[in-house]
Amino acid sequence: MITHDVRVHPSADNLPRTEQLAWKLAELAVDPVEVSGEVTDMVINRVIDNAAVATASLVRTPPAAARAQALRHPYSPGATVFGVDAGTRVSPEWAAWANGVAVRELDYHDTFLAAEYSHPGDNIPPIVAVAQHLAAARGLTGAQLVRGIATGYEIQVDLVRAISLHKHKIDHVAHLGPAAAAGIGTLLGLDAETIFQAIGQALHTTTATRQSRKGEISSWKAYAPAFAGKVAVEAVDRAMRGQTSPTPIYEGEDGVIAWLLDGPDAAYQVALPGPGEAKTAILDTYTKEHSAEYQAQALIDLARRVGTEHPYLRDADNVESIVLHTSHHTHHVIGSGANDPQKYDPDASRETLDHSIPYILAVALQDGAWHHVDSYAPERAARPDTVELWRKITTAEDPAWTSRYHSTDPAEKAFGGRLEVTLADGGRIVEEIAVADAHPLGARPFAREQYVHKFRTLADGVLAPDEIDRFLDVAQRLPELGPDDLGGLTVVAPAGYLDTVTTPEGIF
């Protein structure tokens, strides 16, 4: 890896393009280095993972609304939309939009956490959409698609390691826009100049505040990364037509760093693979076994275990208080340190509840399980004994857990915490967990078998059995797919299934 020093420069410096971060990212995107077998296998896993969670969300209202919008933009050759017959094609930016919302809706796909937060699987919908649209015209193959996805993951993860957005209340999709644009550039074999311009445009148009993940969390949480993917497609299209971007987008005196991040005196060290060095960042990311914010993954596993070993804790009368000692992020974003009353509101939205660790701990402890639908049902959230237990749960920041959260050592890095239960009779129970069971270092690490099982589980009752088998066959042959096969990277719902949800008419 080569570490690049990134800081703000006044316009008078006339910073050479080749010294700008956006150019370094573009150079990374055009590097013809081979994709390893291990990375290829993980790309396949994440394509399956995305399809699994998208399938489970097909008749939820945000994906349904996004799908309705996309279907108003038919295009040939175009790209597919999850749930819809593969012969129905829409403009690729709208396919990226609809499929991105479906993937993101349940907060159930992959994650990477470091200086910033991210869901790198959000790169897949826009890159696949462009691949399907241009497959015939450019002779694109599954192997080229794998290369593009590997680039998207590499760039987003490398930016997430180095540059904190949330510290300045900027939403994490500001790293996604440039990553997806670069991934599309790799897919299409574009030159560094074109990718550089697309990265700048994508970054400039995907910076927004984190209010989408604060307070009363709305359906926009699912749309935010889909918007970034849609914008990335459009940015690449403009750049291919010779249109330029604000420059320097990161380092300029009126650029992103100077005014949205650490300010004019900021300095970042961004490590990127050098020429000929493999893009392996996807191997450092991890998926979810449970449909909830990633910091909740290990804690759901902990609560399930504690509730099973001590079933009397499921009765709120036996509990005086429960305190989770955890990292700064878990405490301040999904814990009581956020100071969001909505995190204790039985009438809160699903999007809010999946960002409330007090709620999640209460339900997982009582049920000994977690379900992507049942655990968020309004009647489940309003159950009086759950509400009573829920309001006895708080979080506290522990510097040791914060340090482990930010560790660069994979063996030390952790996203868990220590649960301290004070019983009504004065007794205490203390249990802790470092990483989720499904984490690569967890009790039951996810491998291909688990990704396939997750897809089959979430597709059961949604897709026909032969459609489940068809998709898994296509996805697992990804590196071998030819241009005519890329359209098979979608799922098709049975006739009438999508009609079970309707959305109001809009402009389109």
UniProtKB/TrEMBL annotation:
Residues 290-477 form the MmgE/PrpD C-terminal domain. Transmembrane segments: none annotated. Its EC number is 4.2.1.79. GO terms for molecular function: 2-methylcitrate dehydratase activity. Gene3D superfamilies: 2-methylcitrate dehydratase PrpD (3.30.1330.120). Pfam families: MmgE_PrpD_C, MmgE_PrpD_N. Coiled coil: none annotated. InterPro entries: MmgE/PrpD_sf (IPR036148), MmgE/PrpD_sf_1 (IPR042183), MmgE/PrpD_sf_2 (IPR042188), MmgE_PrpD (IPR005656), MmgE_PrpD_C (IPR045337), MmgE_PrpD_N (IPR045336). It comes from the Bacteria. It catalyses: (2S,3S)-2-methylcitrate = 2-methyl-cis-aconitate + H2O. Residues 19-268 form the MmgE/PrpD N-terminal domain. Keywords: Lyase. Belongs to the PrpD family. PANTHER family: 2-METHYLCITRATE DEHYDRATASE, 2-METHYLCITRATE DEHYDRATASE-RELATED. Monomer. This is 2-methylcitrate dehydratase. It comes from Georgenia subflava. The lineage of its organism: Bacteria, Bacillati, Actinomycetota, Actinomycetes, Micrococcales.
